[in-house]
Write a structure and sequence with these properties.
The structure holds two protein chains of two kinds.
Chain A (H helix, E strand, L loop, with lengths): L26 H6 L4 H7 L3 H11 L11 H6 L10 E6 L8 H8 L1 H15 L3 E6 L4 H16 L15 E6 L9 H8 L23 E5 H13 L1 H5 L11 E8 L5 E6 L2 E2 H8 L9 E5 L8 E2 H5 L2 E2 L1 H6 L8 E6 L4 H15 L5 H18 L5 H13 L8 H15 L1 H8 L11
Parallel strand pairs in A: 1-2, 1-4, 2-3, 5-11
Antiparallel strand pairs in A: 5-6, 7-10, 8-9, 8-11
Helix pairs in contact in A: 2-6, 2-9, 3-6, 5-6, 5-7, 6-9, 14-15, 14-17, 15-16, 15-17, 16-17, 17-18
Chain B lengths: L2 H4 L8 H11 L9 H12 L4 H11 L3 H8 L13 E6 L2 H4 L3 H12 L13 E6 L11 E3 L2 E3 L4 H11 L1
Parallel strand pairs in B: 1-2
Antiparallel strand pairs in B: 1-3, 3-4
Helix pairs in contact in B: 3-4, 4-5, 7-8
Classes of the chains: A alpha/beta, B alpha+beta.
The complex binds flavin mononucleotide and FE2/S2 (inorganic) cluster.
Chain lengths: ~425, ~170
């Protein structure tokens, strides 16, 4: 079932099969749909055997970085001498991304099952599901589903009769994009300010509470039961372009398309088909101007690049951008790119945790310079200044929030320079008051 | 806002809430880890988190008031001041922005009588603020009224929403 649209014939419906089907939300409904079979199967295997299946499937992290999931799990200590933790990243705050929300709203038990399988694979008794504070509805649904999972013996001291303890607890965020960054997330669970930590140590060695930890995104974990049920070979065969990018991916499409929403595609699907066929293109009389294919943190593509971009990890990199979290923001020809680049920079300035100087000062100055340009008071040198600043903000900080602010600025200026110059030269009317 | 100072402070952590907190503490190996949930309990009970309440939380969890304040001020959803009966958060980040979110803000400020962002309306019923991405970009423009998440709000729908909550 599609959501909010019926599935398009070009979609590959796996994770989104029950989106919009409220009956799939309950424990009974989930079991009726084959739920918890994969967990039963996994619990009968050794942790390493589960890791190996996930490794062989080619599944890569859906939270942004695309790190191979099975490999990440294998970094956890083989012998469990101390408590191990799993953290499920449900902070979903990257502008353009709204897929994890749908997974939690419609298939909460898929996430619980995926977490439980991962917990078995990395020998983690405890999983914290970190849900952003604004997701009040997903929070209620997940709380209810977890309570049901405990009542039915899926979770608890003797999970599914395996003799193993599997606990899952929700930890509610309180408004901070940075808490989606994995080390900031762990600090937030510990009751601290959400400041990212310097690595090493990596989470598998010293994560939450200083103990071995794995952090995975909601969509990554929700894919795991399908892989266990249908096998690594099946998952591995799901690709249209590069065998290094396998499986299906939920792409959240927002902005100027006729049918925004979540679409599930096979890796390697053309962005052009997503925009024009699945989403119905831009409004009549308008044309495509640009697209940010992977959430606001990745470089902007112009029309030509968008229309020839392949949606997988390698295909996006070939166009100088990234698949990121899979949030495609579409802009038509009515968009003021200068204003929208400023608005993106403003997001990062607001969300900077302010630990690193380059990020704290760099994001704030980027906004001020862009606002100066929008007020008709910019100079041509301001564009070089912005690029220079962006350079100082890239690769120099504890986490990549600062780099994420620089990406749209650099690609915005590079690809839409004429619009910036129009404000500077007075060919465009100022849209902001003097700053 | 000093009205909270004129009345004697009533502790948030009544025996009942204390028991709820004790349950939460079982989930974590440290007391500190229950700080975010404890602050949520305060905000649910009082609508905002005063300095006195921060001191109470600090005592309950064995932390210093300064530490608690440092954490409270990091997270944008904790209110440091009382807010209107209906607290409205409107997303104006890029994906919603290009779909007209700023016009939704204007309509809200007009129909609630708030006049400006962050201000509480003269009748004390409304506070409207702009927030960053609410994670529902395909349903532009999402707004939150207290704990209710409302999707696909347009300037035309604002009046009806305001009437419903007034
Ligand atoms: C600033 C910042 C914000 C992030 N926000 C999220 C997020 O909201 N959700 C998420 O899953 N990953 C987010 N990530 C990525 C996480 O750090 C981490 O790589 C991911 O959760 C790992 O899970 P995966 O391997 O399953 O993708 C963010 C990273 C950064 C630098
Ligand atoms: S940008 Fe408005 S909800 Fe994401």
């Amino acid at each position: 079932m599609g959501f909010p649209h019926k599935p398009h014939p070009k979609e590959t419906v796996v994770l989104s099969q029950y989106f919009g089907d409220a009956d799939a939300r309950s424990y009974a409904g989930w079991v009726q749909r084959g739920g918890y079979e994969a967990l039963k199967k996994s619990l009968a295997m050794t942790p390493v055997a589960v890791q190996d299946i996930v490794k062989a499937s080619g599944l890569r992290g859906r939270g942004g970085a695309g790190f191979p999931t099975g490999l990440k799990w294998s970094f956890m200590p083989k012998e469990r001498t101390r408590t191990h933790y799993l953290c499920c990243n449900a902070d979903e705050s990257e502008p353009g991304t709204f897929k994890d929300r749908e997974i939690m709203r419609w298939t909460p038990h898929a996430l619980i099952e995926g977490c439980a399988i991962a917990q078995h694979a990395i020998q983690a008794e405890i999983c914290y599901i970190y849900i952003r504070g604004e997701f009040t509805e997903p929070l209620r649904i997940m709380e209810k589903a977890i309570a049901e999972a405990y009542q039915n013996g899926v979770l608890g001291a003797n999970a599914m009769g395996s003799g193993k303890r599997i606990d899952q607890f929700i930890h509610r965020g309180a408004g901070a994009y940075i808490c989606g960054e994995e080390t900031a997330l762990m600090n937030s669970i510990e009751g601290k300010r959400g400041n990212p930590r310097i690595r090493p140590p990596f989470p598998a060695a010293a994560g939450v509470f200083g103990l071995p930890t794995t952090i995975n995104n909601v969509e990554t974990l929700a894919a795991v039961p399908h892989i266990i049920n249908r096998g690594a070979d099946w998952y591995k065969s799901l690709y249209l372009s590069n065998p290094k990018s396998t499986g299906t991916k939920l792409i959240s499409v927002s902005g100027h398309v006729q049918r925004p929403g979540n679409y599930e595609i096979t890796m390697g699907f053309p962005l052009k088909d997503l925009i024009y066929d699945l989403c119905g293109g831009v409004k009549p009389g308008r044309t495509l101007k640009a697209c940010i294919p992977g959430g606001s943190s990745v470089p902007i593509l112009n029309k030509e690049e968008s229309e020839s971009c392949i949606l997988d990890y390698e295909g996006t990199v070939a166009k100088g951008t990234m698949l990121g979290s899979g949030g495609a923001i579409v802009f038509d020809d009515t968009t003021d790119m200068v204003y929208q680049v400023m608005r993106l920079a403003k997001f990062y300035a607001h969300e900077s945790c302010a630990q690193c100087t380059q990020c704290r000062e760099g994001t704030a100055w980027t906004v001020r310079i862009l606002q100066r340009i929008l007020a008709g008071e910019g100079t041509i040198q301001d564009l070089d200044l912005l690029l220079d600043l962006a350079d100082q903000m890239t690769g120099k900080t504890i986490c990549v929030l600062s780099d994420s602010c620089a990406a749209p600025v650099v690609t915005g200026i590079k690809k839409f320079r004429g619009e910036f110059e129009a404000y500077i030269k007075g060919a465009r009317k100022p849209v902001m008051a003097t700053v | 806002m000093t009205m909270h100072d004129t009345k004697p402070y009533e502790p948030v952590f009544t025996p009942e809430r204390r028991a709820g907190l004790e349950e939460l503490l079982k989930r974590y190996p440290t007391k500190r880890a229950a700080l975010l949930p404890a602050l949520w309990m305060v905000q649910e009970a009082r609508g905002w988190i005063s300095d006195t309440a921060m001191t109470e939380v600090a005592e309950v969890l064995g932390l210093t008031p300064a530490y608690v304040k440092g954490v409270v001020t990091f997270y944008t959803m904790y209110h440091l001041h009382p807010v209107g009966k209906n607290f409205v958060q409107v997303c104006t980040t890029t994906p919603c922005n290009i779909c007209g979110a700023e016009n939704v803000v204007k309509a809200l400020l007009q129909h609630t009588g708030c006049g400006e962002l962050g201000a509480t309306s003269p009748d004390g019923k409304w506070t409207v603020i702009e927030v960053e991405c609410l994670g529902a970009c395909g349903f532009a423009t999402p707004i939150m009224v207290n704990d209710d998440f409302i999707e696909s709000v347009t300037p035309e729908k604002v009046l009806e929403i305001v009437r419903k909550y007034s």
